[in-house]
């Protein structure tokens, strides 16, 4: 059975996975890039940008697992773009540029479906108004036996965790206090009891917490 | 100048430093002992209980610093006992037994002062209705040039952090999701900017985050 995985999902010490005030210029709102600076340093991230260089230590090793064996992604609408409500037009195809880093089918959860968009490099965005279970069914079918990644944002990850659909999760706890935004952990009391949990700190100051279904 | 220190202060991944429903039998409410199991394993904790044995690894080394050079503690009333409002009597002298592990003057913050209580082993509880600044002034005077520990609970630590009175803090992030209780981090946005922050995970799964005033 293909697994459902979450990777490189950053939260602050106070549990926020994104700041307040998402906009076209600030996908993470007032958090800016503070949750992801550690990630930008890695060779894996640099390669996603078509660049060379970057760190190749333990942090990069952890980050690098994000796309191994992944056949489809599910993301919330806010990871696609900052629009709310009905789409005003279909001209803008998300934050991810003409050649998004996913290279698989991507299912964008939205109450406002629109036609699928095929991008360069193998990414196709499908817009679906569906429960987590139904979205996962579609993503699994598209993944051809490979794993499905839940890409975020926080409310999407939280929904899949609440429905006990996640088999592996990597959370990067960044030692900052964001104060406001959207929390990952709400409503997930005793989540740890469903997983084998490991914590490893890296010199960036980030702690990588992995949750693996036993 | 003597420093103000916080030690062995455990929080969950979702930032709760205590659970919901404190009572005489459950000082940490529904959290039970889940925030402190890692701590109980250490030789330092065992010694506090008058026992021998316990771990002597990195975790114990971190824990052990809690009383070095400490001349007084300040704690919130809820770390003394579960009573709320006016004291019904003065017969019960807190959760800490006849010989509390502090062995210094301890200033208990409360809106309901009562006479000081001298315990065995050098601990004297003083009950003060004071601002953080005034309580610290009294504790510093009692500490005779040594450091002052802010012992908790979360609202007390938070008040001292908000007033920028803390010089060193050790927080143990325990990889559990408590879901409810009292949060440490509320109202402390960008706390990290005032400190040098380090994170170290130990095999217990706990991540020790230290905040040191530069």
Automatic annotation (TrEMBL), chains A, B:
- Domain Bacterial bifunctional deaminase-reductase C-terminal: start-end pairs: 8-202
InterPro entries with a match to the protein in the record: DHFR-like_dom_sf, RibDG_C, Riboflavin_Biosynth_HTPR
A Pfam family per the record: RibD_C
Q: What is this protein called?
A: Dihydrofolate reductase
